[in-house]
Amino acid sequence: MNHLAKFINLLKSLKLSLALLIIIIPIIAAGNLIPQKGRVSPAEIFEWQGRYPSLSRLVSFTGFDHVYTTWWFLLIFTVLFFNMGIITWGLIGRTRRKAKGLHRFSGEASAYYSLGNFSYKKEAVNSFEKILNQRRYNIIKVGGEVYARKGWFGIWGGTILHVGLIIILFGAVISGLTRFNGYTEIGVGQGFDEKKESYLQSSYGVLFPDHKDGIHVFLEKVEEKDIGGMEAILSTITITDSGRHALTKTIRMNEPLSYKGMKLYQSRYNGPALLFSVYGPDGRFNAGYVNLQTLKGGKARAYFTFPGAPLQAMAEYTPGSEFIDLEVRKKKALVYHGPMRVEATLDLDDWRLTLLSISRWSGIIVVYDWAVPIIFFGFWLSIAGVAIMGFFDPREIWAKTVERDGEKFIEMLGWGRWKNMFLDEYNEMMSGVLEWRT
Amino acid sequence: MENLAVLQRIMLWVTIWVYFISWLGFVFGIIFGKERLLPWAIRLSIAGIIIHGIWIIMRWVETGHGPYINLYDVASSNGIIAMIIFLLALWKYPKLKALGLLFLPLVFLLMGFGALSTRKPVGLSPILDSSWLVVHVMTAKLAFGSYLVSGVLAVSYLLKYREHEGGILKWFPVNPVNEELNRKFVTLGFLNHTVMLVSGSIWANVAFGSYWSWDPIETWSLISWIIYGIFFHLITIHGWKGRRMAWLSIVALISIAFALFGVPLLFKGSHNLFL
Predict the structure, then answer these.
(1) Per-residue pLDDT of chain B (275 residues; tens, 9 = 90+)
(2) Which of A252, A253, A386 comes nearest B190 by C-beta?
(3) Is the pTM of this model over 0.90?
(4) Of B119, B181, B191, nearest to B150 (Cα)?
(5) Which among B69, B188, B190, B211 is the top mutation candidate for probing chain A, defined by the most A β-carbons within 10 Å of its own β-carbon?
(6) Of A158, A335, A437, B104, which alpha carbon lies 20 to 30 A from B65's?
(7) How far is the C-alpha of B43 from the C-alpha of B49, rounded, in Å?
(8) What distance in Å separates the CA atoms of residue B55 and residue A166, rounded to the nearest whole number?
């Protein structure tokens, strides 16, 4: 056997699927045990590396610090995809042959159990057919043979489940290659052009078609509302496309906004936003938002540099308050520390700072993922497959009259996915027939 | 509300004790041969479920939400669903009644473990404001209950095998039936497990645009799903049965228990908001 044939045989073997599944388990578990890049803070990763220096070098070398995006993890899934695809293709063929019935001729005969071989009496056959009818078997007669089937739709369960899983894997690959996921924080009255540079964090699939031109996202309003005991964040967003108003919608968790394949989600993050203006010594004017991060206890704080000015600052704000606590440094030297109200102005050397407003910012997630419908279709097929497996218990009985030494016999074969249950039922049925034996 | 909180706590412990006494009924009925106690043990279990149901309503009124947020609620609500599945199984397959001996301790110990954890109401995340919540939570509980029955069947199989079907073990279901019932309950659990994973994924996609984020509970739930998938392949295609099948069933149940109760305690993830 040449290498290619061996490879193909390996690729279509069920042992390979089981081996891959067994390998996948510790790998994905490792992704939970080892801090993953992009999933936990760099500080946490640094701390872990400090604690396990040798292990962390090994982890970094093998890619276990970003398991779910390593080439070998994707390779395992790709092999699993092809392996499952080939197996399922064969499964579909076998199931189709089974569905047509008479599948003792389809290479499945080995799965049959010999159920009995008793001498013939016409009454016995009639009685058996009656019992099969009572038990809601579907009886098909072909010549001198009798087929009885029950729960036959169940033979499709496993096949449908596997087709569903392949569709999910296919969708996941498409999603991984073409997906875009971005996160940004914008203040009320602020907007951003929907393009790469606008996001604080983003991830791209290698085949992601570029962002559409001319889409602008504007935050009209942010509110916090108690909805059934839950503090929900509601952001009212307006989308303009090529300068024209496209739509306005209030989004919150579980209620995203969709526009031309783009989806905007409300993140769980929001907080106070300060709008400052800065006049420089050369008369230049700058303005910008500073988004404060909420700390434990409700206070919010931010460290920042004033736009266009060599001034570093720390601002702290208590929700509901009319002023902020501001600390400004120039080249590390403290130049101001004190409260600042809205519309108040601060002159520091040649710089004039004005706090124009205290509003709110909202964290917005933007996603493009064309593969989601494919994946969800796979999900529904998988559920349907497992449900069919659970609710239908396929079984088949084949009875044939044969003549030996001048005496008529009934030879019986049977097949049930769950052998013991099937044999239990068969034995129960046969107890009603026994009296008709010769 | 303060009185309600005290009353619900009392009710929870009453439920645990009723299940415990019911278990004593199984112990005396089976181990000491007092067979007339067995129907009473089952009746007590039913009474326990009724009290348990009243506890759920009281807890719901007290917290303003269903029992799915913290360990206190989750352990107890998983307990009632497991008990309902077990009693329905008894009703359909009376041969299983001896399994009360093994099943009830799992339920009341689980509830006791939950009852000793914090019961402080926690702030609800707006992510919970979704109709997917009911499907996701309910199927998780149904899957756990079904897998628990299958695990107990597997343990009874192993005990019976070891003791060669003598003594009290004559009460346990005979082996072929045991295997088939094990497979049936695993199938029921697997169906609910699949719906739980799918509904969680769809929900996450609606909530924050990510259908899969390798969150620890998500990951471990997938791991246990794969283990049950391997279980199905081994029993249908490779013909695993008997002790091997029973051990596999127990290993898979351990993976589920770890995903449900171990992972939230050991790992940080989005589900920690709820547990």
Answers:
(1) 678 888 988 999 999 999 999 999 999 998 888 889 999 999 999 999 999 999 999 999 888 888 888 888 999 999 999 999 999 999 988 888 889 999 999 999 999 988 888 666 666 778 888 889 999 999 999 999 999 999 999 999 888 876 665 677 777 777 667 888 898 999 999 999 999 999 999 999 999 898 998 888 899 999 999 999 999 988 887 778 888 999 999 999 999 999 988 888 887 665 654 44
(2) A386
(3) no
(4) B181
(5) B211
(6) B104
(7) 10
(8) 44
The answer to whether the Cβ–Cβ distance between A256 and B223 falls below 8 Å is no
Which of A420, A422, A423, A424 should one mutate to test binding to chain B, selecting the residue with the greatest count of B CBs within 10 A?
Answer: A420
d(CA A156, CA A386): 10
Structure tokens at A137: 């078997």
Complete DSSP assignment for A56-99: HHHHHHHTGGGGGG-HHHHHHHHHHHHHHHHHHHHHHHHHHHHH
Judged by a CB distance cut-off of 8 A, whether residue B210 touches chain A is yes
Note whether A32 contacts B214, CB cutoff 8 Å. Answer: yes
Domain boundaries, chain B: 125-266
A244's tokens: 């024209």
At B138, give phi and psi (nearest 5°): -65, -45
**CA gap B137, B275 in Å, rounded:** 12
Q: Which of A31, A367, A383 sits opposite B209 (nearest CB)?
A: A367
Taking only residues 285 to 324 of chain A, the set having a beta carbon closer than 8 angstroms to any beta carbon of chain B reads none
Chain A nearest CA to B103, separation (Å): 23
